[in-house]
C-alpha cells in the first residue's frame, strides 16, 4: 500500500473476521475522533474492505490476512512510517511486533515493551489484558488507558443505499467460520419450516464457501429456490438484507453482529463462548441463547456440546416472540 496523502497516518491492526471488525467499530470510531488530522488506515483482510469503509471510521485499508486468525505480515505498507500504530488484533506479542517492525513514532498495544520512539516521558503503562471483558468494552477500555475516549455502545452502521434482496424476510444464516459455532443443519431446517408455517418469509444465506450447507438447509426446510441466497453476498447487499430484515437467526458469527449494527431483531445461538464476552447489547430486540458451562474452543472442528443443548423449540419460541413484538410495533 502506498500512502499518497500528506497527512500523518494512524495504522490500526485488526486483521480478523467480519464479526471482529464490527465489534471493533466503537474503538475505531474513538481512534477516528482522537486523530482528526490523521489518515486512519485499517489492516484487515481485503474481503472486508467494503465493510471497513462502511464504518465511517476508516479512510483506507491495508490488505492483511494470515491463516487461522494469525498475525499477518504488514509488508504491504509503503511510504513513511505510521505516526501512530494501534494493535486491536490481540494481546501480542506477535501483533505488537508486526506493527513495531514499521517503526511508528508511537505504538499502542497491550504487550508494549517500552515507550516508543518519540513518545512523551511518563506515559501511563499499557493496560492489562482481562479475559473476562466483553470484546467491545475491552478495546474501548484499552484506548481509555491511552487517553482515547470510545463508547462501547457506538455500534450502529448506516443502512446501505442498495436494495435488499429480500426485504422484510427472516434471515436464517446456518454457517460459521468454525464447526464449533455451527448449530446442526437439520435444526436450522426445522426452525425455518416452523417460521414459514407461521406465515413469515424465510431466506437462507451463507458465506462464499457455504453453498452446500445453505442448499442442505433449504432442501430440508422445503424452501423454494428464490429464498436461497448462496455464493456469499457482497457486503453492501448483505448489509441491506440484514438492515431490512424482520429477524436474523444465526450462530455467533458476522451476520449476528451486523444485526446489532442495524438494530435488527436477532436470535443468536452461543456455544463455546459466552454472550457475556461476545453477545449483543442487552435490549428487547436481541436474544442470546446459551447454556452455561465451561468455555469451549471457538475455533474447534466439531459442534460445541453447549451449543447442541439449545433446542429447536427454544429457538423457535424466541424467534416468534421477537417477530410478534415487531408486528405490534
Largest sheet: 6 strands, parallel
How many extended strands?
Answer: 11
Please compute the radius of gyration using only Cα atoms: 20 Å
H/E series: EHHEHEEHEHEHEHEHEHEHEHH
Percent strand equals 5-15%
Question: Cα distance, first to last residue?
Answer: 48 Å
Shape: globular
Q: Report the helical percentage.
A: 25-40%
Please work out how many helical segments DSSP would assign: 12
CATH topology annotation of the largest domain? Rossmann fold
How are the strands of the largest sheet arranged?
8-7-6-9-10-11
- Determine the oligomeric state from the structure: single chain
The residue ranges in which pLDDT falls below 50 over 5 or more consecutive positions are 115-122
Can you tell me the CATH class of the largest domain? Alpha Beta
Number of self-contained structural domains: 2
Mean pLDDT across all residues, rounded? 93
Would you mind describing this structure in some detail?
The protein has helices at 18-23, 25-34, 49-54, 94-100, 135-144, 185-197, 211-221, 235-243, 254-261, 275-278, 305-308, 312-328, and strands at residues 9-13, 39-44, 60-63, 84-87, 106-108, 170-173, 202-205, 228-229, 247-251, 266-269, 286-289. It is an alpha/beta fold. The strands form 2 sheets. The protein has a 6-stranded parallel beta sheet, with helices on both faces. It starts with 8 loop residues before the first strand and ends with a helix. Residues 115-122 have low confidence and may be disordered.
Amino acid at each position: 500500500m502506498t500512502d499518497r496523502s500528506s497527512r500523518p497516518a494512524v495504522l490500526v491492526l485488526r486483521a480478523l473476521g467480519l464479526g471482529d471488525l464490527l465489534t471493533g467499530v466503537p474503538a475505531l470510531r474513538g481512534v477516528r475522533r482522537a486523530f482528526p488530522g490523521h489518515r486512519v488506515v485499517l489492516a484487515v483482510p481485503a474481503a472486508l474492505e467494503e465493510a471497513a469503509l462502511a464504518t465511517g471510521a476508516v479512510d483506507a485499508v491495508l490488505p492483511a490476512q494470515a491463516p487461522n486468525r494469525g498475525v499477518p505480515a504488514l509488508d504491504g505498507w509503503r511510504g513513511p512510517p505510521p505516526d501512530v500504530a494501534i494493535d486491536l488484533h490481540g494481546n501480542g506479542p506477535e501483533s505488537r511486533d508486526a506493527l513495531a517492525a514499521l517503526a511508528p513514532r508511537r505504538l499502542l498495544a497491550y504487550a508494549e515493551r517500552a515507550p516508543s520512539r518519540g513518545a512523551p516521558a511518563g506515559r501511563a503503562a499499557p493496560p492489562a489484558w482481562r479475559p473476562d471483558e466483553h470484546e467491545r468494552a475491552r478495546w474501548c477500555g484499552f484506548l481509555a488507558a491511552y487517553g482515547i475516549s470510545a463508547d462501547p455502545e457506538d455500534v450502529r452502521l448506516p443502512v446501505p443505499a442498495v436494495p435488499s434482496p429480500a426485504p422484510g424476510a427472516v434471515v436464517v444464516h446456518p454457517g460459521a467460520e468454525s464447526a464449533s459455532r455451527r448449530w446442526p443443519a437439520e435444526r436450522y431446517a426445522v426452525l425455518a419450516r416452523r417460521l414459514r408455517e407461521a406465515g413469515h418469509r424465510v431466506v437462507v444465506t451463507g458465506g462464499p464457501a457455504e453453498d452446500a450447507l445453505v442448499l442442505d438447509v433449504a432442501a430440508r426446510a422445503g424452501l423454494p429456490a428464490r429464498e436461497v441466497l448462496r455464493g456469499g453476498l457482497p457486503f453492501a447487499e448483505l448489509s441491506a438484507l440484514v438492515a431490512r430484515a424482520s429477524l436474523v437467526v444465526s450462530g455467533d458469527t458476522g451476520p449476528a453482529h451486523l444485526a446489532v449494527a442495524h438494530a435488527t431483531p436477532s436470535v443468536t445461538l452461543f456455544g463455546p463462548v459466552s454472550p457475556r464476552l461476545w453477545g449483543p447489547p442487552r435490549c428487547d430486540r436481541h436474544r442470546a441463547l446459551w447454556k452455561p458451562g465451561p468455555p469451549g474452543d471457538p475455533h474447534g472442528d466439531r459442534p460445541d456440546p453447549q451449543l447442541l443443548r439449545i433446542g429447536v423449540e427454544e429457538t423457535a419460541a424466541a424467534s416468534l416472540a421477537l417477530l410478534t413484538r415487531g408486528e405490534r410495533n
